[in-house]
Amino acid sequence: MTIERFPVEETHILFFARAIGDYNPRYTDPSAPGGIVAPPTFAMAGSQFDPDNPLRPKPDEPWFGSGRKPSGAKRESGGVLHAEQSFEYHKPLRPGMMLTTRERDGDTWEKAGRRGGKLVFKERIVDYVEAGSGDVVVTARMVSVLTERPAEPAPTMDGSGR
Amino acid sequence: MSGELVVPEVGDSRTMVVADNITRTQIVMYAGASGDYNPLHSDEVYSTEVAGYPSVFAHGMVSMGATGRVLTDWFGVESLVRYGVRFVKQVWPGDTLTATATVSARRDDGGGELVDLTLETVNQDGATVVTGTATARVG
């Protein structure tokens, strides 16, 4: 699950900024004062460089998304949704940086879903470390929730607090 | 940008539309940029027939990414110290999101002045989709 090489690149920042609908020239224009910097949530895009990212189709492995019809392949962990996310910023991410990650599991806890069923919350903490300096540039904390049934139409992941 | 910033007072807030009529295309753009290709977000057949949702829906990180704009437009990108959210409600194609950031505290950490903020993003029906907190350095 660890990312060994996450090169922060101008083109990737451009695509990411467009995808979140933020056309701030700081994300695209090298002549803007301060130069190009990545948006505050850009560290998530490191999953492009995670060889084990379970949410990317891989050659010769069953993919749980559909072709002409549903594939029938099961997602290993069932219904997982993103419940919480936070970032602590130690240094801005800029094109040219090379990052690696150090990852660890945090707490796990359970809660009854509003519509019945059990919700299992899992915390994971990821340090993004700059190659060369060894500085931690961003620390991300993700809480995911495993649902026993679809969280719809009203979500069940309100109030995940312990 | 932060050089021109007037340090806000507790209670000051800013509100902006951060996503207007979210398209399926934007959700696909996020999948492509982020590497989160979970078919829940781009594969209508999977999302409806297999997973049991009414349609595809946006990644939580689309909401968080869009909400972040109210912070970076106000304080500048490099001024953010911390940004965290809870995903309260799913965001569907066609939703319009309005984010509000409100200063909850001003403090000094020894290295300079900080503001703490609370965040709330609502959809076009006024339902909360994201809540959060953030800290920005202002001096």
Verbal overview:
The complex is a heterodimer of chains A (162) and B (139). In chain A, strand 4 and strand 5 form a beta hairpin. Chain A is globular. Residues 152-162 of chain A have low confidence and may be disordered. Chain A contains 1 helix and 5 strands, in the order E-H-E-E-E-E. Chain A has one domain (6-147): Thiol Ester Dehydrase, Chain A (Roll). With 162 residues, chain A is mainly beta. Helix content of chain A is 6%, strand content 33%. Chain A has a 5-stranded antiparallel sheet, with no helix packed on it. By secondary structure, chain B is of the alpha+beta class. Chain B has a domain at 9-22 and 58-137: Roll (Thiol Ester Dehydrase, Chain A), CATH 3.10.129. Chain B is 24% helix and 34% strand. Chain B has 3 helices and 5 strands. A 5-stranded antiparallel sheet of chain B has the order 1-3-4-5-2, with helices on one face. In chain B, strand 3 (97-108) and strand 4 form a beta hairpin. The two termini of chain B are 12 Å apart. Chains A and B meet through helix 1 and strand 2 of A and helix 1, helix 2, helix 3 and strand 2 of B. Strand 2 (79-89) of chain A pairs antiparallel with strand 2 (80-87) of chain B.
Question: Helices and strands in order, then pairings?
Answer:
The complex is a heterodimer of chains A (162) and B (139).
Chain A: E1 6-7, H1 10-19, E2 79-89, E3 98-112, E4 118-130, E5 136-147
Antiparallel strand pairs in A: 1-3, 2-5, 3-4, 4-5
Chain B: E1 13-19, H1 24-34, H2 44-50, H3 60-75, E2 80-87, E3 97-108, E4 113-122, E5 128-137
Antiparallel strand pairs in B: 1-3, 2-5, 3-4, 4-5
